[in-house]
Amino acid sequence: MIEVKLKVNGREVEDRVEPRKHLGDFLRENAQLTGTNLSCEHGVCGACTVLVDGRPVRSCITFAGACQDAEVTTIEGYEGDPIMGRLREAFTANHALQCGFCTPGMLTTSRDIVLRLPDADEKRVRIELAGNICRCTGYQGITNAVLSVLKDLQDNPDEQVESMRAAAKRGEVVQVTSAAFEGFAAKKVSAPAPAKASEPKAAPAKNDAVNKGSTITGEFEVAHPAAAVWEFMSDLKAVAACLPGAVVEEQEGDRVKGRVAIKFGPMSAAFKGSAILNRDDANHEATLQGEGIDTLSQSRARGDVSYKLNPVSADSTRVDVSLVYSLQGPLAQFSRSGLVQDFVRRLIKDFGKNVEARIGGGEDAASMPAASMNPFKMMISIYWEKLMNMFKKK
Asked: pLDDT tens digits for 323-334?
């Protein structure tokens, strides 16, 4: 872990993060500034564009640690900026946004165009905007908005903007002149506390490679004593049989090799890899660290599945589950989807039902078929649950 200290929108933000954590994830997760959107995560689409020391950068491929002590400006930090104020009005007047997902990065790039290129024509504006992808507007409204601001500044020069342009022309760093918008105050989020030396056994190790990933939590209850549940969940092959799509092919102690097949709507993948189980028998908690690669898309996945048993009564146990995962490659675009997270939470519930059935199966448990996945049935279940929750709120 490394200490990262930045000045974000005029406020200092400091936190301990994994060295590979990207600036975009740091801004969203550690600084709690979610206006910066992440999409391709390959530096191609431009949705994540922010200012670092006054210059536009792709925050999805810029390491947070590489920006130590830098001044970062996100879409939340332009309140009072003379150029951005004009651009916001122009974007509204020229219908330059629809879904709004690309807009934070598009506005940041547009501000850079107005600052550096006061005489830019339509062809040059389009070239400069080529690094920002919009799936809705067709770009005409965006281009018109930028051109209208350029034209207005030519007809009605602004002393403050002219001063900023002169500084940029001299090669100086032009910072945003205002403080952060008060409604989006960044806050420090402390790193998890390390295990105490006095504990019976060190807490299960975490996979540093997934600290920047997405987190999903869930729980399920099993009508069996905690000791019986713990004994069952220490058997990796038995546990894998309860997880739809998972197969253990080799096992050596707490190390396993196998594959996990996933099907979610149009997306299907079969990750093949290995995992190791770190157990804390005294506290009935464990972490399964795994990584694998999908042979079709060549996407890589890393994850930590942590679970802790909490006795509810003498004959009932609640299992708290936390999944922290990261995806690299073509499938990375699905990693932050809310629907995917609902899908995984439903998977955790079904896993709990399978655990219940196998523990209660006695001698017949070993002959039970491995759990299978019905994506269509699961999706219908998710949508039905969402619909019921809507009616409950009313």
From this structure: 777 766 666 555
- Other CB atoms closer than 10 Å to residue 290's CB: what's the count? 22
Q: How far is CA 193 from CA 16, 213, 280, 320, 324, in A?
A: 11, 19, 17, 19, 17
CA-atom Rg of the chain in angstroms: 25
- Tally of residues, the chain: 394
Residues in a beta bridge with 267 = 264
- Cβ pair 41, 20 in contact under 8 A: no
Assigned CATH for 2-184: 3.10.20.30
Residue 161: its H or E element: helix 159-169
The Cα 280–Cα 203 span in angstroms is: 7
**Residue 142 one-letter amino acid:** I
Q: Domain extents for the chain?
A: 2-184, 208-393
Q: φ and ψ at 303, to 5 degrees?
A: -160, 155
Q: Which CATH architecture has domain 208-393?
A: 2-Layer Sandwich (3.30)
Query: pLDDT tens digits, residue range 26-39?
Result: 999 999 899 999 99
